[in-house]
Amino acid sequence: MATTVPKAPAGGMATFNILHGFPEALVRDYHHMTQCDTLDDVKLNLTETDYGEALADSTILTPSSLQEVAIEKLVTEFQYLRTQAVEPLATFMDFITYEYMIENVMLLLKGSLSGRDINELIAQCHPLGMFKESTMRSIPTFESNAKGYSDLYQTVLVDTPVGPYFSMFLQESSEHMGGEVRNVLEEVEIEIIKSSLIKYWIEDFYQYVEKLGGETAVMMGELLRVRADTTAINITLNSFGTPLNEPAMRGSDRKRLYPAVGHLYPAGTAMLVDVSDEEELGRVLELFPQYSSIWNVHSSGGADKSIDDAFYERDVQMLELAFEGQMHFGVFYAYVKLKEQEIRNLVWITECILQAQKDEINKFVPVFSHHAPWRSLKSR
Question: What values do phi and psi take at 238, rounded to 5?
Answer without folding.
Answer: -75, -15
